[in-house]
Write a structure and sequence with these properties.
Radius of gyration of chain B: 22 Å
Largest sheet of chain A: 4 strands, parallel
Largest interface: A-B, 36 and 46 residues
Helix content of chain B: 25-40%
Order of helices and strands of chain A: EHEHEHEHHHH
Number of helices of chain A: 7
Largest sheet of chain B: 5 strands, parallel
CATH architecture of the largest domain in chain B: 3-Layer(aba) Sandwich
Order of helices and strands of chain B: EHHEHEEHEHHEEHHHHHH
Shape of chain B: globular
CATH superfamily of the largest domain in chain B: NADH:ubiquinone oxidoreductase-like, 20kDa subunit
Strand order of the largest sheet of chain A: 2-1-3-4
Number of strands of chain B: 7
Oligomer: heterodimer
Structural class of chain B: alpha/beta
Number of domains of chain B: 2
CATH class of the largest domain in chain B: Alpha Beta
Number of strands of chain A: 4
CATH topology of the largest domain in chain B: Rossmann fold
Chain lengths: 224, 347
Amino acid sequence: MSETFEPLIVGFTCNWCSYRAADLAGISRKKYAPNVRLIRLMCSGRLDPTFVLKAFAGGADGVLVSGCHPGECHYLEQNYKMLRRYTLLKRMLAQMGIEPERLRLVWASAAEGNKFADEVTAMTEEIRVLGPLNWNGIDHARQRSEKLRSAERPPSAPEKTEKKAKPAAVAARPAGPPAGKKPATPPGGLKPPGPGKPKPAPPPGAAEVKSVPAQPATPGEVES
Amino acid sequence: MSKPTFAMYWAASCGGCEISVLNIGDRLLAVDEAFDVVFWPVAADFKYDDVRGYPDGYIDVCLFNGSIRNSENEEIAHLLRRKSKVLVAFGSCAMAGGIPALSNLTTNEETLRAAYLDNVSTYNPDRVVPQPNTTVPDGEPHIPVLYETARSLDQVVDVDYYMPGCPPEPHQIWAVLETFIQGKPLPKRGSVIGAGEVAVCHECPLQKDEKTIERFYRPYEVTPEPGRCLLEQGIVCLGAATRSGCGALCPQVNMGCRGCYGPVDDIGDQGAKILAAIASVMDGVKPGKTDHEIEQDVEAGIETIADPAGTFYRFGLAHSVLRRARKNGRTNGTATRLEIHHEENQY
């Protein structure tokens, strides 16, 4: 829940609209939160609810589902099916204790690059407020960054690794082009974070990153 | 003493599996003839210490029903695994958590509160809730520790075969026992026995018309038209994602399939699959509405499904992808021991 918590969002996008909206956002140099990992489906109707459950169980803090606007489905009406599954799934997830904000539906046509980007940013901020999901009591974010760090760390040089930790941990999250801005600004930020404030983040970020591995010795489960 | 040995055990279960075994009728005599019963709490007077005294691998076939809900269940699961050559997870509870695993949707505190305190038919003026350790004038009795998360048998020990059903159908039980009695070659370890390989819909005689529906009804709200698919009449039926083998008994008496035979092969998560199927039979949306209106219409239709998680995972929550609900915002998918060191009158 600290400032350095970077939500990990798995996004399922439709090949015919929202994936292209994401493309458009990139081509337009639109800045938005780098927290979403997109998976392209041929249609949002292809979204098996199992995918969403596996994403949550496997460490995602949120799942974004995006498809064509109602009435514009490339396959006539599969996005309606997705809408019903999404609605039902959301109710079921609430019973499992998963906050509704963690599953988000976005209608985005291929022309709506801006909308797509804004929604991703808004969702990232909402989940940042909620904090990590850590399903199964596993600190997935720490596991990821530790994995990355151990992959990058040379066998010796203990002091230097501390410094390397910073880029490693950052790299664990963005993986996308616009890594500059990290919307560490307060919660409810529904607006896209404007450009700027790229630098102030590092010092506290680095401190946090250091503190993370210093926590308990055992990664993984809470208790077993 | 050349007869093969047979054991049956109930962990967190209702006893229905045992009754289903008795329901094989006269053939029970054949079972008695073929097997030497060495442990079967419901039918024969053997103690845990008797089992502890057996050499490892002494039991040829052990049918284990019930989920793992407390420390006693777990201890005996380990014991029977060690003593058994073939351990069968018998019935929905042992296979996938079953009804006891529905408690994974809530916390032990809530469960105990409902069972011992808040239930309108409960008379408990002293507000006594069972404790693992207590002190009474006669000594210190200990009872098993209730775990926070109910588990299936295979989440505790290795399981050789799975036999689904709540309870397993007698003809399937007999077919399986016959396999053991006659010494036929056993299927691949880890496979599901005593069940079909297709979905319940395949053996359901009700007619399917591919009609869509606008809303769902609970069974008491509607009298279904005979002979027609229940799902298409708005009654939640899990047949599309559930393994066959029962003969589609429930749909034929106007009760939607409850999903006790577990998921069909290759389905990871029964609840998620049936959720997808159920959402698909709902109506197409009329044109000429805004996105928001459409979302509201869908919402209204979906709301007619009461308790989605409890319905879709009625028998398989422990085996599902998520396995249990989060408690108080803290996640906990692995089984943990409940700290029941309550002070008196904590509730």
